[in-house]
Amino acid sequence: MKTVNNTFGIGIDIVNVSRFKNKPFKANLDFYKKIFLEDEIEYCKKFKSPYEHFAGKFALKEAVIKSINEDVGFLEIVTGHTNSKPTVKIKKSLPNRYNFIASISHEKEFAIAVAISIKNN
Is residue 12 part of a domain? Predict the structure, then answer.
């Protein structure tokens, strides 16, 4: 029987939504493109108030970084949604090395995210 050794990690982050509201998207495109992939930007922009969603995705990327013991950039972390639940993948340097369980919530001024990472050995 083969034994599988999984390593777990957890990360959490909270963001004040005003950090994004104070940087209007159209006037700060370079800022947003340093953090978010095109699909992530399009997802956030489809909402009447996109800044809560930008803050939530930013918090999720920070939580992912905290949950793993690897150097990874914001643009290597791919966030999405399946059945209204957040999903996370890491592309390029660490594909298929981790699986994630994620949660995002936003309420008025704050967005919070939690990421649990499972390292595949």
Answer: no
Spell out the residues 6+ positions from residue 101 whose beta carbon is closer than 8 angstroms to its own: 115, 116, 118
Q: What is the pLDDT of residues 26-81, one digit of tens each?
A: 999 999 999 999 999 999 999 999 999 999 999 999 999 999 988 899 999 999 99
| Alpha-helix residue ranges (DSSP H) falling in 26-108 | 29-33, 38-45, 51-67
Give a yes or no: residue 83 inside a domain.
yes
Q: Any idea what the CATH number is for the domain that residue 41 is in?
A: 3.90.470.20
Tokens 């959490």: give the residue: 12
Residue 104 maps to a domain: yes
pTM: 0.91
**At 108, is the secondary structure helix, strand, or coil?**
coil
